[in-house]
Amino acid sequence: MSSEAIAALREVHDLLTTFEEPSSIRRAADELEGAADKVVSCAAELVDVPEPENLQLRLSFAVKAIRAAEKAARAHRRNPLTRPLSHARFALNTGKARGWLQGILEKLDAAPTPPSGA
User: Fold this and answer.
1) pLDDT (mean) for 46-57
2) What is the reported pTM?
3) Domains of the chain and CATH, by start
4) Which sign does the torsion angle of CA 9, 67, 30, 24 carry?
5) How far apart are CA 115 and CA 68, in angstroms?
6) d(CA 22, CA 41)
7) pLDDT per residue as tens digits for the range 84-103
Protein backbone atom coordinates (compact mmCIF):
# COMPACT_ATOMS: atom_id res chain seq x y z
CA MET A 1 0.00 0.00 0.00
CA SER A 2 1.47 3.34 -1.00
CA SER A 3 1.44 6.06 1.62
CA GLU A 4 1.85 8.68 -1.14
CA ALA A 5 -1.34 7.46 -2.82
CA ILE A 6 -3.25 7.58 0.46
CA ALA A 7 -1.94 11.09 1.12
CA ALA A 8 -3.03 12.18 -2.36
CA LEU A 9 -6.52 10.75 -1.75
CA ARG A 10 -6.68 12.66 1.54
CA GLU A 11 -5.66 15.82 -0.30
CA VAL A 12 -8.47 15.40 -2.84
CA HIS A 13 -10.93 14.63 -0.01
CA ASP A 14 -9.83 17.79 1.82
CA LEU A 15 -10.22 19.79 -1.39
CA LEU A 16 -13.78 18.51 -1.80
CA THR A 17 -14.51 19.46 1.81
CA THR A 18 -13.70 23.11 1.03
CA PHE A 19 -16.67 23.32 -1.34
CA GLU A 20 -19.35 23.42 1.36
CA GLU A 21 -20.09 27.13 1.01
CA PRO A 22 -22.70 28.12 -1.60
CA SER A 23 -20.30 30.56 -3.25
CA SER A 24 -17.57 27.94 -3.62
CA ILE A 25 -18.86 26.82 -7.01
CA ARG A 26 -17.36 29.98 -8.54
CA ARG A 27 -13.81 28.84 -7.83
CA ALA A 28 -14.45 25.12 -8.12
CA ALA A 29 -13.90 24.60 -11.84
CA ASP A 30 -10.28 25.74 -11.61
CA GLU A 31 -9.51 24.01 -8.33
CA LEU A 32 -11.09 20.68 -9.28
CA GLU A 33 -9.07 20.43 -12.48
CA GLY A 34 -6.68 17.53 -12.08
CA ALA A 35 -8.40 16.06 -9.01
CA ALA A 36 -9.96 13.22 -11.00
CA ASP A 37 -6.61 12.45 -12.63
CA LYS A 38 -4.96 12.37 -9.21
CA VAL A 39 -7.53 9.80 -8.01
CA VAL A 40 -6.96 7.71 -11.15
CA SER A 41 -3.20 7.68 -10.56
CA CYS A 42 -3.79 6.65 -6.94
CA ALA A 43 -6.00 3.80 -8.13
CA ALA A 44 -3.10 2.45 -10.18
CA GLU A 45 -0.87 2.43 -7.09
CA LEU A 46 -3.39 0.82 -4.73
CA VAL A 47 -3.55 -2.71 -6.10
CA ASP A 48 -2.00 -4.52 -3.12
CA VAL A 49 -4.92 -3.95 -0.74
CA PRO A 50 -7.48 -6.45 0.50
CA GLU A 51 -10.43 -6.57 -1.92
CA PRO A 52 -8.76 -4.54 -4.70
CA GLU A 53 -11.78 -4.89 -7.03
CA ASN A 54 -14.04 -3.23 -4.46
CA LEU A 55 -11.54 -0.41 -3.95
CA GLN A 56 -11.11 0.13 -7.69
CA LEU A 57 -14.89 0.26 -8.14
CA ARG A 58 -15.24 2.84 -5.36
CA LEU A 59 -12.41 4.91 -6.84
CA SER A 60 -14.07 4.83 -10.26
CA PHE A 61 -17.33 6.08 -8.71
CA ALA A 62 -15.40 8.90 -7.03
CA VAL A 63 -13.74 9.86 -10.33
CA LYS A 64 -17.10 9.87 -12.11
CA ALA A 65 -18.59 12.13 -9.42
CA ILE A 66 -15.61 14.53 -9.51
CA ARG A 67 -15.85 14.84 -13.29
CA ALA A 68 -19.60 15.49 -13.03
CA ALA A 69 -18.91 18.19 -10.41
CA GLU A 70 -16.38 19.80 -12.76
CA LYS A 71 -18.96 19.77 -15.53
CA ALA A 72 -21.58 21.36 -13.26
CA ALA A 73 -19.11 24.08 -12.20
CA ARG A 74 -18.32 24.89 -15.83
CA ALA A 75 -22.04 25.01 -16.67
CA HIS A 76 -22.59 27.36 -13.74
CA ARG A 77 -20.13 29.82 -15.26
CA ARG A 78 -21.43 29.50 -18.79
CA ASN A 79 -25.18 29.68 -18.45
CA PRO A 80 -26.78 32.03 -15.90
CA LEU A 81 -30.27 30.65 -16.51
CA THR A 82 -29.42 27.18 -15.26
CA ARG A 83 -27.30 28.24 -12.27
CA PRO A 84 -29.68 26.91 -9.61
CA LEU A 85 -29.70 23.50 -11.27
CA SER A 86 -25.93 23.56 -11.82
CA HIS A 87 -25.41 24.46 -8.19
CA ALA A 88 -27.56 21.53 -7.04
CA ARG A 89 -25.74 19.12 -9.38
CA PHE A 90 -22.40 20.42 -8.13
CA ALA A 91 -23.36 19.96 -4.47
CA LEU A 92 -24.70 16.47 -5.14
CA ASN A 93 -21.61 15.32 -7.02
CA THR A 94 -19.04 16.81 -4.64
CA GLY A 95 -20.91 15.15 -1.78
CA LYS A 96 -20.92 11.81 -3.58
CA ALA A 97 -17.21 12.02 -4.38
CA ARG A 98 -16.39 13.05 -0.83
CA GLY A 99 -18.41 10.13 0.51
CA TRP A 100 -16.72 7.60 -1.77
CA LEU A 101 -13.28 8.92 -0.81
CA GLN A 102 -14.18 8.94 2.90
CA GLY A 103 -15.22 5.29 2.70
CA ILE A 104 -12.05 4.38 0.84
CA LEU A 105 -9.83 6.18 3.34
CA GLU A 106 -11.58 4.49 6.26
CA LYS A 107 -11.02 1.07 4.66
CA LEU A 108 -7.37 1.86 3.94
CA ASP A 109 -6.78 3.09 7.50
CA ALA A 110 -8.33 -0.10 8.90
CA ALA A 111 -6.45 -2.42 6.52
CA PRO A 112 -3.45 -4.22 7.99
CA THR A 113 -0.18 -3.20 6.43
CA PRO A 114 1.54 -6.00 4.52
CA PRO A 115 4.97 -6.96 5.87
CA SER A 116 7.90 -5.50 4.02
CA GLY A 117 9.90 -8.15 2.21
CA ALA A 118 13.06 -7.81 4.30
Assistant:
1) 81
2) 0.83
3) 3-110 (1.20.120)
4) negative
5) 38
6) 30
7) 888 899 999 999 999 999 99
Q: Which residues contact 89 (CB under 8 A, 6 or more apart)?
A: 68, 69, 72, 75
- For residue 15, the tally of other CB atoms under 10 A from its CB is 20
Query: Is residue 97 within 8 Å of 69, Cβ to Cβ?
Result: yes
Q: Which pLDDT value is given to residue 112?
A: 58
For residue 117, which amino acid is it?
A: G
- The counts of H helices and E strands in the chain are 5, 0
Question: What are the CA-CA distances from residue 62 to residues 72, 82, 101 (Å)?
Answer: 15, 24, 7
Contact 98, 16 (CB under 8 A): yes
